[in-house]
Amino acid sequence: MASTLKVSSSDGVKVYSVAGGKSIPSWVSDAKKKSLRKDEEYRKRIELIQDFEFPAACQRIKATPDGQYIFATGYHPPRVRVYDLSQLSMKFERYLDSEIVDFQILSEDYSKAVFLCADRSLHFHAKFGAYYRVRVPRFGRDLAYSASSAELLVTGSAPEVYRLNLSEGRFLSPLQTRSSAINACGISPSHGLFACAGEDGGLECFDVRQRESLGWMNAAAASGADGQQLTAVRFDQGGLNVAVGTSGGIVSIFDLRSSKPMITKDHMYDSPIIDLKFQTDPFGSGTRHVVSSDKHIIKIWDADTGEAHTNIEPGDGSEINDVALWKDSGLIMAGCDSSRIQAYFIPSLGPAPPWCSFLENLTEEMEENHATGMYDDYRFVTKGDLEKLSLTHLIGTPMLRAYMHGYFIDNRLYNKAKSIADPFAYETYKKKKIEEKMEEERKSRISAGKKLPKVNATTAARLILEEQSKSKKKKPETNVLHDPRFAAMFEDPEFTIDVNSEEFKQLHPNTDPAKDKKLLAEHFEQLEEESSPEPSHDEEYHDGDQSSSDEDDEVEVPAGHRRAPKMYVAKDEKSARAYTKGKSLQKEREMPLGMRSVQTGVRKRVGGSNNKEITFVPRMAPDKKRNQKGARKPKRR
User: Is the pTM value of this prediction over 0.85?
Assistant: First the structure.
């Protein structure tokens, strides 16, 4: 059973899909149902709750305050289903005359509920069935219930908020808002403040005990989304913070004492925010999470820092209509434009609810068995890889799944195509491993100096000299040459830096490859190979002056022969410093002694008998100069 749970690991957080598998319609014949016994996917399907689905789609889903029942509404035809969680099955189903826009549960259990329908009517239901029906003046969009005053608040396509007092059984004077229409509303569970999310982007708050507005602000403009509508609003448990969502997919959290948002989060889908919920960490860490959703994705992120926790996307690609979050648990349910109601369990968000505690055992078994992820059987390839494998004709077919700048391909297909495209890949791999083994044995021998690697020798020489110069001044930092993460850069020929490529010239516009070769020949000496291979044609085109790299580049290497690798070592410390700075000492060495003495700091003194005395100041290392700064200079005699 544990192996049937689908798991995804977005941002390192595991999300288990606990309502997957095939679903069959009610009109399927008995013979067809019997044939499904041989279907492996159908036999191993997961049904968290029996008949937890609708024929067409689910619009709204909520849990009762006592946590024992679930209300879910759907359409075609409009209906409501109530599920008993103690039995993990459906308790009853009722049909309505019009599509359900929203509903509220008025009691602790399923005994009292009210449904706002698309025909401007409010349907009150009790345990035995439909109880009463009343119409509101305008089309409603959202519904809220104030338990402290027993008032039902209806918002919609009008600036008024209609109030129906359930204890007196009559309408009260409506609340007048500044917005032309109200898309969503919400009541704080701590102090009873009523908030309205307007079409003009304004957030307006009321105290239901009086008709005057307590305050108004343009929440959309404060969130950086001026001109967008507010489509969702929600208070946290403390009552000081309120979250709003815009029609452009932006979520902002405000402190009621400030007009500037504390945190702003963008869903990056440019779709209206459907629902917002706060969740406090039940493990006692005090972390608050916000569960925000649009029709594409459910995002879970930290309410204090805005750091993303994880994301949930429906596996069948259907649009999300509503989200239900189980209190103090990691169970999330989503009503989508598909027949099955989706359910997800996130262990890092909280434990499983008591009525489905078996989910803990299932996920623990999967952890012990090291279950594979959703993409473990696939390999990511780019279009260039497909051209090498001659699989470009599969683009657009189900064999390749487009993702970002490439495609996902089945590992079995990839391995088969790889063996056909490169039948000698194993021989090449074997030869490469033998060369690496022999190179490791050569490194263990005693050498006269530091040898440069075969690959990217110029870059390695520069890094070695930089390391030597830094080691004299301060504690040397970690060098790329000694970092195992970059070892392949100086061993694998595929990582060779092509200084003549257009990309290299764009990144290093001032780099002259010919100058680097000249400096390498001037400041370094070439070492002879320790083991001389059998005579080859290399000797013929290396008989000339080896210090001139320009001449070597002009000689063509015969086909089937490889140029022997060259090893270099710095001539002296002065040459090493000059190579690091990119300078040549050739002009300095060609100067006469007199001119050189002037540049190197030579002191002259003429005596009375026309005798000249020349004193040379020898060059010192930086550390010696620093140590002798405070020392007293010796007197001349």
Answer: no
